[in-house]
Amino acid sequence: MNNVGQSMYQMAKRMFPICRSITGNGFRDSLGIIREDIPDINVFEVPSGTQVFDWTVPKEWNCKGGGIYRINGEKVVDFKDTNLHILGYSVPIDQVISREELLNHIYTQPEQPDWIPYVTSYYKERWGFCMSENQKKTLKDNQYKVVIDSTLEEGSLTYGELIIPGETEDEILFSTYLCHPSMANNELSGPVVQAELIKYIKAMPNHRYTYRFVFIPETIGSLTYLSRNIDTLKARVKAGFVLSCVGDDRTYSYISTKYANTLADRVIKNVLKFHYPEYKNYTFLQRGSDERQYNSSGVNLPVCGFCRSKHGEYPEYHTSADNMDLISPEGLQGAYDVMVKVINALEHNYHYIMTCKGEPQLGKRGLYPTISQKGSYDSVKAMTNFIAYADGEHDLIGISDIIGSPIDQLIPVIEKLIANNLLVCEL
After folding, report:
1. Distance CA 200, CA 211 (A)
2. Dihedral pair phi/psi, residue 342, rounded to 5°
3. In this model, does residue 343 exceed pLDDT 90?
């Protein structure tokens, strides 16, 4: 088993029990775990009440516990068993109430009767509990004690950012969210993959692009981040990727930018068609995560979404079944591998031009078999096809699409041709 996949899985496992939300200590504690590995991630706090475009940063919410109990003290549901039992952003309560009143504050997913749904109320103050439909059916008593030990008060929204400078100011953006409670694929897979991609970029001896990594609460976090950085982002970002639900073993998915015509769209489609040709392609009309905000009117950044099973499209999504058994080291590793291929493709995506007219004599340079017989040409077919199209008309992604060879197979070809003074590149 690959050590990178196992490392990502163990980090996700460590963060899984934390009660996260769009604000609060759960987000900070989770980001703090990532910063143990990557301490130079910068942390920003944006006060409650701050205007961010058409939205306002909400009050900060923290929850320590709570549950539903029978009058004799017997537990029905308890925060200690899973933090999904408390409706996200619930105001505090400590009362004995009737069964009839309690049922008005219970949320279930009837079509999935054994699973606890994830439900929130960020922008309207209320309290509530989430449980399985089967648990709800056990509520037969006339009265229950309900307790939610939470605070909702002026505080701040937290986000993390790391910018790794490159040879140019042109940027590649990676964005992921860290704001859901105990769900593994929907919540933790994106941040742990992004953390490993940071390590990958840092280990590169040099890189053309500057890389910008952000860890934010979904929706309100991307709006907050955009409101503070939009001019720089619009000037510098050439491609971007929202990482979400990248930990399972089922498939790969890509959500296009608004018009599906950016460098981000081109490179991820190219990599996926060679890496996993059965991948699912979703249009922007099927968006659901922060690709919404990055492509919104007046923003229009070239940012697409990347998932394994897409958010909202797998049965465990936003339920207690999205647990550590749903993701795997192999699933996380696969998503990481795809994005490494994307990074390498972008780093090598120049227009290439051969330096000689006519086909070069590859044999005298040790680049072509010196014995000619049927089959000997196959081993250098990618090289000769690349040479034929290295005329400056297409960038590397375009050549790869035309000749049907993956970019990671063409990179060593390019390096050999450049080493033999047969190839030059231009932007």
Report:
1. 11
2. -60, -45
3. yes
